[in-house]
């Protein structure tokens, strides 16, 4: 009996359950298989849904109902001076295509290349609308640029971007001299911002300033209306308001003593130096 019991005991030990490590491996294996099935199903469902968005005509961006570029499903906001036609043409390739395929980043980059457009945002509104919000550039001054046989007028903003004046638009802005179309936008922007700093410091005194010359950033010059005429004032690079106010206070006496002077050096705070206009060549 003892030997029989011992044999049974040995037989039972061979059928013992697997170790905890093996059970853990089996469990993770099952989880991995289930996750793979779920992932595959998700990818398949996502692909099917994407195909649905691409092919279903309910998500197509409608084109213009008649001849032209205007689509009732494309809303443009913020355009005043930028070319509306140029902006609309950027979206022509998107008409008749699914909103799912609409290239947001590419269209925004193209919008930023349109004159007068400073910033832009685009929103897709499902099922088939697009809303475009444009922020236009703000001109800071008029500039004169050389053309083929004459000078042409243009506008410039504080970033140095040159803008074509829009038709039938009126701007009350100073003229900025010293800006060259061939120099970098960064350098042009520096000249504009120096002009703005000067005008801001002058405050109400800037009302009679018709032109600022920023050719030399260390010696800004202004054209000021004084005594019924225009004079050129060299203001240097600081104390603009103090120097101009001092000149205006003493100008009646200066004009009596130097009636032919049209330019004045105000760069030294304790003196005003008048320069006579050169005689016309005969």
Account of the protein in words:
By secondary structure, the chain is α/β, with parallel strands linked by helices. It folds into 2 domains: 74-136, membrane protein fhac (Ubiquitin-like (UB roll), Roll), CATH 3.10.20; 139-276, Cell division protein FtsQ/DivIB (Rossmann fold, 3-Layer(aba) Sandwich). Helices cover 35% and strands 25% of the residues. It has a 6-stranded mixed sheet with strand order 7-8-9-10-11-12, covered by helices on one side. It is elongated. The N and C termini lie far apart (147 Å).
Structure summary:
This protein is an alpha/beta fold and 282 residues long. The protein contains 6 helices and 12 strands. A 6-stranded mixed beta sheet has the order 7-8-9-10-11-12, covered by helices on one side. Strands 1-3-2 form a 3-stranded mixed beta sheet. Strands 4-5-6 form a 3-stranded antiparallel beta sheet.
